[in-house]
Amino acid sequence: MDRIDTIIVWGHGIKYLDKILEYTNEKFEILKIKRYKIKNVKKFIKDVYSFDYAPFWHLKDKTKYLLNVPKEAVFIFIKNLNPNEDYFGEGKFRHRESKTLKNFKEFLRDKFNPYENNKRTHNHIIHATDNPTQTHCLLKMLGYKEGIKIFEEDKFIKLPYYLKGYKKFEIKKIDINSLYGNIVVGKSWDNFDLELTPLSKTPHFLGIKNIEVYQNYIDKFLGGPLGDYYNKNKYQNLIQNFKYLKDEYKNNYVVVKQNKDRFVILDGLHRASILYSQGYKEIIVCQVL
Question: Where along the chain do its domains lie?
Answer without folding.
Answer: 3-151, 161-288
